[in-house]
Amino acid sequence: MCGIAGIRRFDGTPVSQELLAEMAKRLHHRGPDDSGFWADGPIGFAHTRLSIIDLAGSPQPMAGASGTTQIAFNGEILNYRQLRSGLTYPFRTNGDTEVLLALYEQHGPSAVTELRGQFAYAIHDARTGETHLFRDRLGILPLYYYADAKMFAFASEIKALLPAIGAAEVDQESLHDYLAHRSVPAPHTLVRGVRKVPQGHHLVVSASGEVRTEAYWELPRESEIRKVTPEEAVRLVDEALTASVRDALVADVPVGAYLSGGVDSSLITALVARERGDAELHTFSAGFGDPRVDEVHHAEKVAGIVGSRHHNVTVTADDFRDSWAKLSWHRDAPLSEPADVAVFRLAELARRDVKVVLSGEGSDELFGGYPKYRFALPTRLAGAAPSFALKRLEKALPASKARLGIALRALAEPSYAERMRGWFAPFTVSERAELLGGPATRSVLAPYENGRGDAVRRMLYADSHTWLADNLLERGDRMSMAASLELRPPFLDHRVAELAFSLPSSVKVRGGTTKWVVKEVARQHLPADIVDRPKSGFKVPLDAWFRDGLRDMAYDLLTGPTSFVGKTFDRAAVRALLDDHSSGDRNEQPRIWTLLSLEVWHQTLSW
């Protein structure tokens, strides 16, 4: 994995190497092994490298053999050897970067459809005067940009854009999205004027400064659903996932695996162990010293089964207090999930032994793993339910019934789009309007309300384009890159994703069992008690910490005289949240976390 950045001026002003160096400096953690710059008058690229393939070669930015193209590339093209064998090109290196250049020079922008892997890259073509940006199909790797009448700038992380664009401001409309999603779905961000290249999109900047984006890939449509038996579905998923894991092991450095003890990471680890044979495999898990949420003993059991060398790290309340600001800087956004801190500590642990790690990310959003998918049809039909009664019942629930409370809050929302995101939303639509003095003027979920098939499929489609791409994958990239570790999620090979969306929902949520087809695949590689135990997830015991070790910090940050949250939202309402949680009457942890993360992020960004 690497960091890329660049700038293109439309007034003819030359791009200085000093500016490119300042942009690259903010991406050093993404590529501590090397850095490089290229400038040609009003355009320039910068690159920081984490060497994974062709360790001694492939410096970037790299020029094409024609002398008319330049590339800055972040990612791994896992089928680059196969692609290279079909090209007639005067190769000078043994890596995947030059394969990208050769493909572009011979086939143009459409060559992106030949790639397997995770990537974000920019190519400038002097022949056409165009600059092209590409982001991988599922949005595993990030790519941000800023455009105005004078210039266009891009980077792997928002912080690297700031030297080019100057002062930043909070995008007020995106605050609505943040309170609804715990992140901001593409193409928007919390920083005004900065946008994301959406997953599976190609962006073109013309010589005149026109910027246009277009999708080069999309998930299969409802008409492409296969007619398969459950047994055939299990076989297809097993074959696709096995092939994906095999490809994900392509590297010239040590590769390990995250192992939480859940079905997804355990299955990936078992497949990795089978592919590697007798080669030593390092696995890694995180715990919290709390038996209510720890899965460490499950991970250790799986490690014993597959024969891996296992490592654990314990995450404490002090880790949150000490690293929150640092990790907010790395994420360029509020830490949307308490697990962000744990994922970083896990990445730190893994980086001691390996440079690449595989994870089970993406399985839930492709194959229906969350409990909410069992409620997909009620979510769609709940508009007829008396929302006031559902809200009253939710308010009366004790803190121990948090999961039921989430369901009631979601089902009480006024529209299908709001009910879909209500399962993950910290604040309801009415709460957001009250906090921000009015309703949102845009709906990022509106495109997913109609025309995508049955209720489960619609929910999966929305989650794969918002929750997965803009929350979980953003977290995975930033927290691993903060430790200079490359993360690869085999479930998000685009062939696996295409297969998932070509299968009927009946093999995903079956007989009340979520993620049925993945569990049946896992059953062929793991003991039944690993497969059948209840889903736990990467939970952090913040409900208790916000009443104890982190209580004073929460009050100080959210109700203090200089608080951004206190100035932007109703200070009395924020204090009421804290008081309700401290008393033990309600579990307000998701809402406290959301506001605290926003406050800490605002303090860390250079405004």
UniProtKB/TrEMBL annotation:
Family statement: Belongs to the asparagine synthetase family.
GO terms for biological process, alphabetical: asparagine biosynthetic process
Species annotation: Lentzea albida
Binding-site residues for ATP, renumbered to this chain: S359, G360
GO CC terms: cytosol
Domain Glutamine amidotransferase type-2: 2-208
Origin superkingdom: Bacteria
Pathway(s) per entry: Amino-acid biosynthesis; L-asparagine biosynthesis; L-asparagine from L-aspartate (L-Gln route): step 1/1
Name of the protein in question: asparagine synthase (glutamine-hydrolyzing)
Active site per database record: C2 (for gatase activity)
Important for beta-aspartyl-AMP intermediate formation (site feature) positions: E361
Matches recorded under PANTHER family: ASPARAGINE SYNTHETASE, ASPARAGINE SYNTHETASE (GLUTAMINE-HYDROLYZING)
Pfam family, one: GATase_7
EC number of the protein: 6.3.5.4
